UniProtKB/TrEMBL annotation, chain A:
Residues 1-30 are annotated as: Disordered. CDD domains: TM_PBP2 (cd06261). InterPro entries: BPD_transp_1_N (IPR045621), MetI-like (IPR000515), MetI-like_sf (IPR035906). It is found in: Cell membrane. Residues 127-361 form the ABC transmembrane type-1 domain. This is ABC transporter permease. GO terms for cellular component: plasma membrane. Keywords: Cell membrane, Membrane, Transmembrane, Transmembrane helix, Transport. The chain crosses the membrane at residues 38-60, 133-154, 166-187, 234-254, 292-313, 336-364. PROSITE patterns: ABC_TM1 (PS50928). Belongs to the binding-protein-dependent transport system permease family. Gene3D superfamilies: MetI-like (1.10.3720.10). Its main location: membrane.
């Protein structure tokens, strides 16, 4: 399919179309194949990102220019026209598009209209918060999803399995914002165990702001302050958003582990172990679960997209000031320059994660490469 | 050639007969919940005690944030609407959006997939790359973008619902496209297609009669999974403020958004009931979809007592690893190796 990869021509896999008459080489253990795979896969990101950026641009611009959208009712027509001219939105769309692409390559996403900040600054300021939330959610998802999946597979088609599968579907069927609202109702308002919203209380935030060069990852910053009270405060704030978003993914992990462990339990080598008298519980614990984890890594790519979309909703529920929270704010303000920037960044993150996940899967499982 | 259509061959009925034990229980439970959801949607005007935008009865205002009482079984919202009525009417909005979104995405997705897979060439390449890009995009974000374009924000029942429905449509098209394209590529290589061409059958007829009819076996499964996703996406849009005006229609996500501030002050009824409605609707449809998926996969299907010992069976799950885990398959997706196994889904143990 791609012919641009001829620099790394070690061990052409059969059937890739290149019919050069190279002398047959001794097959080494497939290291070259991996290099080629990674390169091809990497080159495939470029069209994906390009299409995403173009789609977002075209879609956003088909509604008109961002200035009219944001300030439409509030300025007189001549003032509006002047602002549009200043910002260059009256030029041909193709010129604007090329300029936008050029800006993105240089890391310039434009300036927000509602609060006049560089979009790149918004992205770096709030991106850390979203990543932090995503990490918490993944941790929760692993801690909940994998063990429960093993239990469900072990008790296949019996009561615990049924209960766990219903639980998994419930995790998936509950919108994150409703899960968040319920958690808030019970644990913040009802029991008062956790704070209602935000990433940290004001005192802790001030202490972290005083740090030289804060990273934006509150856990890291809290550890750097050296004050256990600050760290405790940050972690307390993280529990409910992390659980709300994590449960969504936990359901998917549970199903996946269950399905794959059931699949592995039917394989010959497990049968062999079984015939040697290994107990069923031990089969799950020592033989079947490791190969069953491989698909989880592949699915992680998909999960990142789902996590980011979920983060938008979770952040709004908990006033967690990350990209999703800002996205909702800018959507309300009809500030489409900012929306465009955030959406493009999220899309690129998804594309890059998918790439990393594919490489990881290829490293683990040689059959993936070709 | 008129083949006798028997009930047992219909998609869901067939699986219902095939299922046993726990799996049948899940399928039946899903079907019941889904039926309740649909009946509520149809009968909303008769079931709901008040209109979805009704603020007063007999000239007396309902009052805002009233706790559940005899007049208002589930209380009233911050805007002074009756919660129970809005929950019931919300089913109608959700059902409307699902039906429109899925019908539209099936038509477009199947048509594109059929043409793309059948003729191949550069059009095929372009469509595959574009669909993969859309598929990799977080669906809620895509829906937000499209909602901005289509409605510019909020509007009336039909405008708002259609905007939401078409936003969701675009998100779903790649799924139908991928499945139908993969099937088409597979079926195209079969001998009976060659015979049809030899006797001079036009392409349109081959596509419609020979390919399409053999390529639709996985559609019921994807439809159910998409239906539940459509409800969640609609609710997400509403929650972020892209819903439908409360005076135009009742929408669960919008009501949940309005209940955000109530929760902090301990008012639970405005959040709980619309949320439960979403969960139940999605749960019912997902249970049906899950069961269909498991029944299609011999490794996951519960075995009838007598028919154990199937040995090794090829994976025929529509999406390897389970239906909810569909993801862009990297190179596999681009090369059109397809997400489907080669074995027939109808394999019985």
């Amino acid at each position: 399919m791609t012919t641009t990869t001829d620099q790394v021509t070690t061990a052409d896999p059969p059937g890739t179309g290149t019919s050069r008459s190279t002398p047959p080489r001794k097959k080494t253990s497939g290291g070259g194949g991996l290099g080629r795979y990674v390169l091809v896969r990497f080159l495939l990101i470029i069209p994906t990102v390009f299409i995403l950026v173009t789609t977002v641009f075209v879609v956003m611009r088909s509604t008109g220019d961002p200035i009219t959208a944001a300030l439409g009712g509030r300025l007189r027509a001549d003032q509006l026209a002047e602002r549009i001219h200043e910002a260059g939105y009256d030029r041909p769309l193709v010129v604007q598009y090329l300029e936008y692409l050029g800006g993105i390559v240089r890391g310039d996403f434009g300036t927000t209209i509602s609060d006049n900040r560089p979009v790149s600054e918004v992205l770096t300021t709030y991106g850390a918060a979203t990543l932090e939330l995503a990490v918490y959610a993944l941790i929760i998802a692993f801690l909940v999803g994998v063990p429960l999946g093993l239990v469900a597979a072990h008790h296949r088609d019996r009561i615990p399995d049924a209960v766990l599968r219903i639980f998994a579907i419930l995790c998936y069927a509950t919108p994150v914002f409703f899960a968040g609202l319920l958690l808030k109702l019970v644990f913040s308002v009802g029991l008062g165990w956790f704070p209602v919203a935000g990433r940290a209380s004001t005192g802790a935030e001030l202490q972290m702001m005083a740090l030289p060069d804060p990273s934006g990852f509150y856990v890291v910053d809290a550890i750097r302050t050296g004050d256990p009270a600050v760290l405790g405060d940050v972690l307390l704030h993280a529990v409910l958003p992390g659980v709300a978003l994590g449960l969504l993914t936990a359901g998917v992990f549970l199903r996946l582990v269950r399905t794959n462990v059931i699949g592995t339990l039917a394989t010959d080598y497990v049968d062999a172990a079984r015939s040697r008298g290994v107990s069923e519980g031990r089969l799950v614990r020592t033989h079947a679960w490791r190969p069953a984890l491989i698909p989880i890594i592949t699915v992680m790519g998909m999960q990142i997209a789902m996590l980011l979309a979920g983060a938008v909703l979770t952040e709004t529920t908990f006033e967690w000031k990350g990209l999703g929270f800002m996205l909702a704010q800018y959507l309300q303000a009809r500030d489409f320059v900012a929306v465009q920037g955030i959406v493009v960044l999220l899309a690129v993150i998804v594309a890059v994660t998918n790439f990393l996940v594919d490489v990881l899967a290829a490293l683990i499982d040689p059959r993936v490469r070709y | 050639m008129a083949r006798r259509l028997s009930w047992g061959r219909l998609p869901v009925v067939h699986q219902l007969r095939q299922s046993v034990g726990l799996q049948r229980g899940m399928l039946v439970a899903g079907l019941v919940v889904t039926a309740i959801f649909l009946l509520t949607a149809i009968a909303a005007p008769w079931l709901a005690p008040y209109g979805f935008s009704q603020l007063r009865a007999d000239g007396v205002l309902f009052g805002a944030q009233q706790p559940p009482s005899a007049e208002h079984l589930l209380g009233t919202t911050v805007g002074g609407y009756d919660v129970l009525s809005r929950v019931i009417w919300g089913a109608r909005t959700a059902a409307l959006v699902i039906v429109v979104a899925i019908a539209a995405s099936i038509v477009v997705g199947v048509l594109l997939g059929l043409v793309s897979g059948y003729f191949g060439g550069w059009l095929d390449r372009v469509l595959v790359v574009v669909c993969d890009a859309i598929y990799a995009f977080p669906s809620l974000l895509l829906a937000i973008l499209l909602a901005i374009v289509i409605s510019g924000g909020q509007s009336d029942l039909w405008g708002g619902s259609l905007a939401a429905a078409f936003s969701i449509t675009v998100v779903f098209i790649p799924q139908y496209f991928r499945v139908i394209r993969a099937e088409t590529v597979r079926i195209k290589a079969e001998a009976f297609i060659d015979s049809a061409r030899v006797i001079g059958t036009p392409h349109r007829r081959i596509m419609g009669r020979h390919v399409l009819r053999n390529a639709t076996r996985t559609l019921p499964l994807i439809v159910t999974l998409n239906a539940s996703e459509a409800i969640l996406t609609l609710a997400g849009l509403g929650f972020l403020g892209f819903g439908i005006e409360p005076t135009a229609a009742a929408e669960w996500g919008y009501d949940l958004n309005k209940s955000l501030s109530d929760v902090t002050s301990g008012i639970w009824w405005t959040a709980l009931f619309p949320g439960l409605a979403i969960v139940l609707a999605v749960l019912g449809i997902t249970l049906v979809g899950e069961s269909l998926n498991d029944l299609a996969d011999p490794r996951l299907r519960s075995r009838r007592a007598a028919a154990v010992g199937a040995g090794e069976v090829a994976e025929t799950s529509v999406v390897p690893g389970g239906a909810l885990t569909a993801g862009p398959a990297g190179l596999g997706g681009l090369e059109g190796s397809g997400t489907l196994g080669d074995e027939g889904i109808e394999v019985r143990p």
